[in-house]
Amino acid sequence: MANQSYLKRINRQRILLAVRESGPLSRSAIADLLALDRKSMTNLANELIAEGWLCETGVDYSSRGRPGTLLDLDRTQHLFLGLHLSENQASGVLLNLSGEILGRQERPYAPVAFLKDIRAVLQEVYLPLLRLAGGKLHAIGLVLPGILDFASATVQRSVNIPVLDGVELRRLLPRELPSELYFEESSRAKALAELWFGQGQGRSSFVCVDLGIGIGAGIILEKHLQGGPYAGEIGHVIIQPEGRQCACGHRGCLEAYISESILCRELSQALQQPIATLDEVGALNPAAEAVLAQAGRALGLGLATIVNILCPPLVILHGSLLRFAQQIFPAMEDSLATAALPSCRSRVEVRVSSFGAEAAALGAAAVPLGRVFLG
Ligand SMILES: [Zn+2]
Fold first, then answer.
1. What is the CA(338)–ligand 1 centre distance, in A?
2. Helices assigned H by DSSP within the chain
3. What would the pLDDT profile of 255-295 be if each residue is shown by its tens digit?
4. Domains 2-73 and 199-352 share a fold
5. Residue 40: φ, ψ to 5°
6. Distance from the CA of 157 to the center of ligand 1, in angstroms?
7. In the list 67, 124, 143, 290, which could disulfide-bond 189, CB 3.0-4.6 Å?
8. What are 97-153's pLDDT values in tens digits?
9. What's the CATH class of domain 2-73?
10. How many angstroms does the Cα of residue 375 sit away from the middle of ligand 1?
11. Ligand 1 centroid from CA 218, angstroms
12. Rounded distance, CA 144 to CA 361, Å?
């Protein structure tokens, strides 16, 4: 019996994934695509319709024989709430099963906020989205920067939001939740956002690199996020032995050269004005262009490690630094050419994400949404 219920669960996921990727589809088209017998297909489809995962939509006249009713994802029933805590704001999105954004919220907080302030701001984001979901919430995802201990659902260490160190993630939200809560680290969650809603759709493997105060990567292989909470720490790849001191205690890490906070300090000097975030930078002068070119060279050295080891068909870059692609990319290409094997480099496409600051909240919703389709 255990095997049968396992098979049934897998087949339900396969049907939903087929409809997501190729739908709307008729029952017979899905059965052919997945090599399912008609009776099982009919039973599973009826079940998925009754539970609000699929809906009937129009008639398929394209195939020979009797026209079949088309099935599509039900966009009205199961909803997903994604929440993101960054170093200075809480944000959230409410999505339906096909990834359409039904609502969004964001609230800033002071960079040195107390835990109770962060909780209060997170509630201000969560509660309106919960009300909007109107009892149809399937699951909640919460993401934040740092190393998470999934076994105990606590923040092991968050360099960006130190007040969260050691905090049980469950305590950040109200005691009574209407649905299951999932967690993920925010850079890794951005890779899930790309997989389900962005440039990673239709790809089975790619790497997403997040350039912020911390530098992290999400590695997607065969449509799954790889590694545990310690995977993807590309920010601590050493690009300059005995180089600059990094916050991690080592010297010469990529993060010590291209962390947003370090670049802001360097750009403040170059532009002779105080700059707190890269979004504040206006017109560049030659000194600021030189700072950005140096960041591009450092980034290329870090990416060369990914290119040489994984040779993923696609690398997607996230972060405010990419506003300066014109200054960053030529220098990044130069150092990729220096440090990556040509046979690997030629197979890797490097792109900039089309998501803005919302990527991590989308990724938070993608954590439970992805489980619907892939388990
Ligand atoms: Zn480091």
1. 22
2. 2-22, 27-34, 38-50, 115-133, 186-197, 255-258, 260-271, 286-310, 325-339, 342-345, 359-374
3. 999 999 999 999 999 999 999 999 999 999 999 999 999 99
4. no
5. -60, -45
6. 14
7. 143
8. 999 999 999 999 887 678 999 999 999 999 999 999 999 999 999 999 988 999 999
9. mainly alpha
10. 34
11. 17
12. 9
Q: Which amino acid is at 138?
A: H
Place of tokens 């911390």: 214
How much distance in Å is there from the Cα of 104 to the middle of ligand 1? 34
Cα of 281 vs centre of ligand 1, distance in Å, is 26
Can you tell me which residue has the tokens 């545990």?
Answer: 228
Q: Residue 234 Cα, ligand 1 centroid: separation in angstroms?
A: 9
CA of 202 to the centre of ligand 1 (A): 34
DSSP 96: E
Q: How far is CA 335 from CA 293, 340, 374, in A?
A: 11, 8, 37
| pTM greater than the 0.85 cutoff | yes
Fold category of 199-352 in CATH: Nucleotidyltransferase; domain 5 (3.30.420)
Token pair for residue 280?
């504040």
User: Between the CA of residue 150 and those of 81, 110, 168, 193, 321, what are the distances in Å?
Assistant: 20, 27, 10, 20, 30
Tokens, residue 12 = 């339900």
CA of 100 to the centre of ligand 1 (A): 37
Rounded to the nearest 10 degrees, what angle do helices 325-339 and 286-310 cross at? Answer: 40
Alpha-carbon gap, residue 87 to 109, rounded angstroms: 8
